[in-house]
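Hello support,

Our group uses your service weekly, and this is the first time we've seen a run hang past the timeout. The protein is SDR family oxidoreductase. I'm not sure whether the cause is the sequence or the server load. Input pasted verbatim:
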Amino acid sequence: MLSLHGKIVAITGASGGIGEATARLLAQRGAAVVLSARRSERIDAIARDIREQGGRAATCVVDVTKAEDLRRLVSTAIDRFGRIDVLVNNAGIAPISPLADLDTEGWSAMIDVNLRGTLNGIAAALPAFREQGSGHLVSIVSVAGLTVSPSMAVYAATKNAVRTVHEGLRKESTDGVVRTTAISPGYIRTDLADSMADPHVREQTRKNMDAMGIPPAAVARAVAFAIEQPADVEIGEINVRPTVQA
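Update from on-call engineer: The timeout came from a worker crash unrelated to the input. Re-ran successfully.
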């Protein structure tokens, strides 16, 4: 039977939503987790809850736009648990709006968090993976990149850029040392809409999430499935959406 026991997993954006659900599920299944986010009080509370339930958890305050913070996250995992087997790049924002609104600050923020944040994670984790002889990079992308909708052009572009980086890393890692998995959620009940600047887009997104959204645990199960596979199996991409989502 496949198992997560002994896996050491670091997760960005773990203060809520998909990141929190992933941390809780992986810990329940035997992995040691390192939760990271900007909100220290929230990840500390989640980690404490995991430990009280018999799991192993540590925390690290991280702003993914800062390369040194991701290096500290990797170091925390190694210092606390001896190695890092998986990095889950989950932190992301979506201040989406029509291109005609010219929200250049929002565009830059999405590039910094969604794309540069992932690259910072890769730069931090890859040397450790290579030194260990194994490692797994999991990134939460989006179905928004598969079918681009109005107001989501830049957001989709950042997610598709991450998808491209994953494929490039996969092609560079056919020696079997590093595995990559891109997971693309559809409507998931999270607070992602809070980062949307346009009030009309934000309200419509919340309505869609309420009407058809599925729990973050659905994505967490996909993460668990990908990382529990034996070393000779790589799950390249998974799409997780509500059955009622077009």
